[in-house]
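Sharing a chain and its predicted structure for anyone who wants a worked example. Both blocks are below, sequence first, tokens second.
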Amino acid sequence: MNPQEFSQRILTSKEAQEVKGHPVLVTLSGGADSVALLRVLLEAGFDCRAAHCNFHLRGEESMRDERFVRDLCQRLNVPLTVKDFDVAAWQQEHGGSTEMACRDLRYAWFEQERQRQGCRVIAIAHHSDDQVETFFLNLLRGTGIKGLAGMQRLSGKLWRPLLDVSRSDILAYLSSIGQDYVTDSTNRENDFRRNRLRNIALPVIEQQFPQAHERILNTMGNLRNDHELMMSLVNQIIPNERHIDIEKLCSQPFASTLLYHRIRHMGFNRDQCNQVVEAARQGHTGRQFAASDNMLVVNRQTIDIETATARQDIEIPIDLTQGIDSPVRLSIARGDTPFSPLMCDGRCVVAFSDHLLDSKRVVLRHWRRGDRIKPFGMNGSKLVSDLFADFMLDHAAKRDAWLLEADGEILWVLGYRASALYPVKPESQDYLLLKIQN
């Protein structure tokens, strides 16, 4: 493959056409793959900036790689940013293997640099040999269609222009243009699973099954097409991933598999989806399932998924001397006629003594576990959760309910019940009348 053919294989893709004309952050290790990526993009006229990670794991060899990258970028007139990492310190805090620590560190930093430099994408030098290795690694650890389909050329902000060329194509290209590169000595070691696969297993497969490389890549392409078709059908059946109709979902064959493919990107696994569907079929409302930054709740008619933000920590200070527009519209009137209990319904219209204005802190907030209220006509207090149960509220309604609190005491669960605190005497004109404007 001559340099022109090599470039054509890479630069005629629709992804390349989308990216061209925008700054590209090229991840540059100094190895053959990343050097070839930088050179071919530059020759095609891409606006390249380079980023190099130094993990300081190979002593002088790590410094050699950095010097090579600096010299190359200076010669090619490419802006370069270098980042030093303390992998051991990161592992001490987060745990995990050295391999995974380096991966997490570099991808997080690449994204920071992409944003800082205003780049459209992060270009990574994965090639077709990496695809085949990924196929076997995912197969051996257990996966589905998506895992066997391998990496995509453009996934979010990650662009992999070299996926259609092999390692031998890359080496031939570099040789043809007289470009040198550095070699990571750890690639020859078999301490990592990918290295064992690359250095031991795949050469045997290629020897015993000629053209295995091409056939596996063809299979992966078929699986990617199948996965795209499957996901288009899944999205048609479940158009709203945040509010899923239980009746429609449970009427489908393989309901839990369908649910898994719709919400797996949120971090939910197959076992959880099996449990969710079973809970929905049994009518076990209120069941909750957590994954990453999301919370799934089985309600009466829908399965609802919300971002697990700290809603319970939200407190919105309010001024009771004027009406409230957000987060709930409330009108607040001072007493100008003698008070009568008939003015209130105890749910959407409530009254409190104007001594409430002496409170140091009045806020609107959401329910928290353990909250209690002191309702009219009741000795002592009542759990707000029991109040919700009395009204047969599902999780979504509990989550969205607002509470009025003054100096740590709950005065009103808006729309449901007011407390006996700050009572108003009949015929008194020293009161505040609060009304939900909805």
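Comments welcome. The chain has three domains: 3-220, 243-307, 315-436.
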